[in-house]
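Fold sample X.
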Amino acid sequence: MSGAPTRPPVLLMEAARSTEDPEESAVLDLRLEAGELAVVRVADPARGALCADLACGTAAAAGGRVLCLGQDWSRLPHDIADALRGRIGRVFNEGGWVQHLSMADNILLPMLHHTRTPPEELRERAASLAHAFGLPGLPLGRPGALPAADRARAACVRAFLGEPVLLLLEDPLLEGRVPELAAPLRDAIAAARARGAACLWMTASRGVWEDGSLPCSQRLVLTDLGLRAAWRQA
């Protein structure tokens, strides 16, 4: 008798290069299984954003391949790719906010687009997450009216809403400038990993990257030559 089928990794990047990389020299190799956390030190936030774009299929790979849950982004029809991206939560390095919309609408819009969950139920879930991340409730003002620390908290609410299977976090602590967000973020990551999500946490902060209390599966460095593993759990 054959054993149970092996689940594909949540994220697999094999010799992937971005068409948007001006040097076209960074080769990305990464395998993230369900429940894994990889912490990546990134000196150039723009390069980290390109890595995240490749991971979620919004940037085409010039070489190699990128798979999410076993699906090759380059081979997926547009509607299927869009549905798959609905299972990814992301904190954008530059915010990714639509400035003319309220923060509440910014947070809820991805899940309103990707799911049939009633808006009021989504709003309740988002408000609960907002409290968990240190906000008094679901923020209502526009992005520009909120302090940077509150926008960082709101970005985490948006990323974790909907129980994503893959989390792409681009410096969620703002290079360590929002230290009070660290504890709730770790709790949220731990809960996500427990239900089988994988997480890629990119940071420019050496202190975050070297934090031995982070229960990560692997630590990597992203340079202009690509991803280099510094440590991986045996």
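Fold sample Y, listed below.
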Amino acid sequence: MGAGKDAIIYVVDRDSMGKFNSTADQIYQEISGQLGGGVYSMPAYFNGTIYYGAVGDALKSFPIIGGKLKTSPASQSAHTFGYPGTTPAVSANGSTNGIVWAVDNNGTLLAFDATDLTKVLYDSSTAPNGRDSFSGNKFITPMIANGKVYVGTPNSVAVFGLLP
């Protein structure tokens, strides 16, 4: 699965990726018109759903149904991501309580309910007195480990976790 500057999602058959064929492209599924801009990142996967964050677009979820992606998003965030979009990451308790994390280039960490991207669980820009602010950085993927979220900045690492 992948997408690029053309804003088209391509799904290939991992067991039959094909070889050069001058008469057919051998793409398993091609979805156009659902991403608002180019994709400079990788999608995230959780519980049978793919999450994309294209340039100038909302974070969107595409369920996998019968081996193919649903051709329109099942859910999308109200927040849109400027250039270069966002690379989502997922944390969960097994197959429950999924959270999709995304970093905006302006230095904002956002957390969304994985089952409904309209539900914002956390937005670092709303913390009082700039407590959770950090410098923006392009092409950053949040990393989740040991109950904390780590975000690379231009000259450091911002660490987010529960307050004591």
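Sample Y note: The chain has one domain: 2-160.
Also: The first strand starts at residue 2 and ends at 3.
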